[in-house]
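Quick one:
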Amino acid sequence: MFHKEGAKIIFGALAISVAIVLLSEQFIHSFWLLKIVQITVLVFLILILQFFRNPRRHVIATDHNIIAPVDGKVVVIEEVYEPEYFKDKRLQVSIFMSPINVHVTRYAVNGLVKFSKYHAGKYLVAWHPKASEENERTTVVIENNLFGEVLYRQIAGALARRIVNYAQQGMQVVQGTDAGFIKFGSRVDLFLPLGTEVNVKLNQKAIGGKTIIATKA
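Output:
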């Protein structure tokens, strides 16, 4: 299945692809050139479809785990100063998504949305140290019964031009359900309380809704 945020782009890409294929058959008389054009169009369409895929993932929601909000590679695990909401030190875990990863954002924990804010910004590459503070981004804080306040930040990358965030202040959200979407390359940062037991390692592949980032008894 595909994510609803991709409907217009998928329809547009399909219409353009069909038009190019039909026109190429009319105006390109070289067999090999025609095949190259058609194969290129097919590859383009497949890339669009795979980017907006939204695989079903069964999640058993629990307050004892923080799960990966997105698919990608763990690129940061470190104590940092979080300046926007907490204004003190937190444990940051960051997951980088390439254009070939599923880009659905899922809620990492159950709880009450305490804060949700969108920031317009730059489009630095997602792994840039300043991306978390300067790129287009959204900041969401969820209060969980066991972990307390957990902040996650959707960050646009060099290719991304739109972040979709469904979290609104006052909402009660369920772990693993759809929290939004980031279009075309990005990163998600999690800011956890100091002392949180982290279960992942640097460069580990994370699967949104499946990989357990942290646990608490």
